[in-house]
Amino acid sequence: MTTTPDRLDLPARRRRHARLIAALTQLIGACAEAASAVYRPIAAAPPDQEGVEVNLLPCLQVSLSLFFMV
């Protein structure tokens, strides 16, 4: 026997999916910003420079935010 979703549940399911897509979009944006914070100083450094100081805190913050999204 197969079950079909109740038509009344579809709006609630669509809202839930919309919230998940919105959260995923925010996470993707946060990942892009964190990556930019790390790689922008590397890209801006002179070619002959050996080391570049970068801040990994934004990457850590994004990774920790995943625990609160689940």
Shape: rod-shaped
Q: Could you list the spans in which at least 5 consecutive residues all have pLDDT below 50?
A: none
- The helix fraction, in percent, is over 70%
Which sheet architecture does the biggest sheet show?
Answer: none
**Number of distinct beta strands:** 0
Query: What is the tally of helical segments?
Result: 2
- The proportion of residues in beta strands is under 5%
Order of helices and strands: HH
Overview of the molecule:
With 70 residues, the protein is an all-alpha fold. 70% of the residues lie in helices and 0% in strands. The protein has two helices and no strands. The chain has helices at residues 9-44, 57-69. Helix 1 (9-44) packs antiparallel against helix 2. The longest helix has 36 residues, at 9-44. It starts with 8 loop residues before the first helix and ends with a helix. The mean pLDDT is 86.
Secondary structure elements and pairings:
Layout (H helix, E strand, L loop, with lengths): L8 H36 L12 H13 L1
Features:
rod-shaped, 2 helices, 70 residues, 70% helix
Short synopsis of the structure:
By secondary structure, the protein is mainly alpha-helical. It contains two helices and no strands. The relative contact order is 0.12.
